[in-house]
Design a protein that fits this description.
The complex is a heterodimer. By secondary structure, chain A is of the alpha/beta class. Chain A has one domain: Rossmann fold. In chain A, 33% of the residues lie in helices and 23% in strands. Chain A is built from 9 helices and 10 strands. In chain A, the strands form 2 sheets. A 6-stranded mixed sheet of chain A has the order 6-7-8-3-9-10, sandwiched between helices. A 4-stranded antiparallel sheet of chain A has the order 2-1-4-5, with helices on one face. In chain A, a hairpin with a 5-residue loop joins strand 1 and strand 2. Chain B is mostly helical. Chain B has 15 helices and no strands. The model of chain B has no long low-confidence stretch (mean pLDDT 89). Classes of the chains: A alpha/beta, B mainly alpha.
Chain lengths: 268, 342
């Protein structure tokens, strides 16, 4: 059984892509969302982070791509300290880390293809992107990624006319267009019905296994965790209370993570 | 001193000072020069207020309820043990007398005169004017129509030229876009400048511009444009500040820069409201363009004031009709377009 908060070794092995050390995030209103987190992420992992709402999952993910700024601690991305960088460097880091969200965060009035091309914004000159002059190779790749997630035929439809599951797949295609090394997923299926849930998680698994992209995913349901995760971290009150493989989550750990009166809900 | 006591004292002392000042004005009949002596008059009024404050204090010590006490004190302190009618109380008389005196002062100040209203010659002149308006002289209709087109285009160009400036300014004056110390100072400064520009009525701007570029539609157009830039920028920026955060996060997470973020995540969300505000502004500008003509802004307004100056009421009636039709049509079109945009 893995112990809580065990920070592995100080040597960064070559297959560690992300390393978090003593990460702290305190909001201006005084709320301590993250209290000294320590963990590593290996290349090609499908790491799932579980925990109650308010346990700090979303904050953690947003610190990793600097949408939020950490208050203290370090984040190392491929060995480079990205905690304090500013300006152009942040854009560079973000272009290598894709992110999908619970509410999809697409541009509703733009077409599906246009949304996928957003993934190339970090690699396209500003004036060209504003005029819509994306490279032909970019457009072809975007179409390929749309086909990969099974909605190649919807390329010219307005994004807000798709169903939830389809929109999330467009979001996945958008991150793929970045050719990222890591894909962050903040509760990607929390707004979807059970069947669509599995469909989207299957695409994430496909992206992880066929394209070798490391995935860090926040999830609510343990049954999904057991099906998709290679490793699990559980947060509670901004601290890590469990780190290990999905099988290792026993009943007692379940209660530790979710609270004494929690009962497991299965989605099929 | 607790809050209500302070407010009560201020109110009562002002009341008292006002009544005394009015009485003195009525009995002494100050000359124009005495009225213009601002320093003496202010000091005098302050002195009266001080006396009023003392009176108020004195009365409250005697537990006599003043009008100020009725208004500001909590209810348990304004309740009379014997159920008195207003005319049996001090505060009742204080209120009544003050209101009557206020009314009288108002009528005197506006030189209200029943005699002027009933004056036979004046009345006959008015009848002549209304008859003229009611039977418009359509011989000048062609000229009026030409001029009203000048006015409509003045409003159109003013709005159209204002759009690009207001568009850029809307992002520079939006709190959620201008974050960071340098940006915030720019935001603050621009907001201040635009507020000042907007407070100066377009009519005044027209006067300023007619001195600069000469009387005519160009001055009117510039005046409307400047005012429109400031008004549109404010309305636009309010929309920018209320956009959904989601698409912004989505675009930023790909490694996009600030301009890309604005163009792809904010602009699509505000396009429709922007168009709606712009159409509304064009509507307002058409109305204002007619008035601006009165101070030399060209178009139908200038034609109106020419005929009005010569008391040619038939012609004035025709022009008024033309203006009314245009404004009504513009209003219909504007409502129709904005409905379609929803």
């Amino acid at each position: 059984m893995n112990s809580v908060n065990q920070y592995k070794s100080d040597n960064l092995s070559s297959d560690t892509i992300l390393s978090v050390r003593n990460l702290e995030k305190t909001y201006p209103n005084g709320v301590r969302a993250l209290k000294g987190l320590n963990f590593d992420v290996k290349k090609g992992e499908f790491l799932v982070i579980i925990g109650l709402s308010g346990s700090g999952k979303s904050t953690l993910l947003r610190c990793l791509n600097r949408l939020h700024d950490p208050t203290a601690g370090e984040i190392l991305f491929e060995g480079l300290n990205i905690t304090q960088v500013k300006g152009e460097k942040i854009k560079l880091i973000r272009s290598q880390i894709g992110m999908i969200f619970q509410h999809f965060n697409l541009i509703p009035r733009h077409s599906v293809l246009s949304n996928v091309l957003m993934g190339r914004l970090g690699h396209t000159k500003t004036w060209k992107s504003i005029l819509g002059w994306f490279a032909d190779s970019d457009k072809e790749q975007a179409m390929e990624y749309l086909r990969l997630v099974g909605i190649g035929d919807k390329a010219n439809i307005r994004a807000d006319q798709l169903s939830g599951g389809q929109q999330q797949r467009v979001a996945i295609a958008r991150t793929l267009a970045q050719n990222p090394k890591v894909l962050l997923a903040d509760e990607p299926v929390a707004s979807l019905d059970p069947a669509t849930c599995h469909s989207v998680m299957d695409y994430l698994k496909k992206v992880n296994q066929e394209l070798g992209i490391t995935i860090i995913c926040n999830l609510h349901f343990l049954s999904l965790v057991r099906q998709y995760a290679t490793r699990v971290i559980a947060l509670r009150g901004g601290e890590i209370v469990f780190e290990g493989t999905p099988n290792e989550i026993s009943d007692s750990w379940f209660k530790e993570i979710y609270g004494q009166s929690a009962k497991e809900v299965h989605i099929n | 001193m607790t809050s209500f006591r302070f407010k009560r004292t201020v109110f009562d002392s002002l009341c008292f000072a006002f009544l005394l000042a009015f009485a003195l004005y009525a009995f002494i009949h100050p000359t124009e020069n005495q009225l213009l002596d601002l320093t003496t008059n202010t000091l005098f009024f302050l002195g009266l207020s001080l006396i009023g404050a003392l009176v108020s204090y004195f009365l409250s010590k005697r537990n006599i309820i003043t009008w100020g006490q009725m208004i500001f004190a909590p209810s348990h302190l304004t309740h009379n043990s014997e159920e008195l009618a207003w005319y049996q109380t001090l505060w009742g008389w204080q209120a009544a007398v003050t209101l009557v005196v206020l009314f009288a002062a108002g009528l005197l100040s506006t030189k209200f005169s029943i005699m002027d209203l009933l004056d036979e010659d004046g009345f006959n002149g008015a009848v002549r004017l209304f008859k003229g308006l009611a039977s418009p002289n359509f011989s000048i209709l062609p000229k009026a129509v030409v001029n009203v087109f000048e006015t409509i285009f003045m409003a159109f160009i003013a709005t159209a030229l204002a759009i690009p400036f207001a568009f850029v300014l809307s992002f520079l004056t939006a709190k959620n876009v201008m974050q960071g110390p340098v940006s915030f100072s720019i935001y603050w400064l621009l907001r201040l400048v635009l507020n000042v520009v907007r407070s100066i009525e377009a009519l005044i701007w027209a006067i300023i511009f007619s001195v600069w570029v000469g009387i005519g539609p160009f001055a009117g157009m510039l005046a409307l444009m400047i005012h429109s830039i400031a008004s549109l920028a404010k309305q636009y920026s309010e929309m920018v500040e209320t956009v959904d955060e989601g698409p912004i996060e989505g675009v930023l997470s790909t490694g996009a820069g600030k301009l890309q973020m604005i163009w792809f995540s904010i602009v699509p969300q505000v396009v429709l409201p922007f168009i709606s505000f712009t159409v509304y502004r064009w509507d307002i500008n058409v109305r204002m363009a007619t008035i601006i003509g009165l101070v030399g802004g060209g178009g139908i307004g200038t034609m109106l004031i020419q005929y009005q100056g010569q008391a040619m009421w038939g012609e004035v009636g025709c022009i008024i009709l033309v203006i009314a039709v245009v404004v009504w049509l513009m209003d219909q079109a504007s409502t129709y377009i904005r409905e379609a945009l929803k």
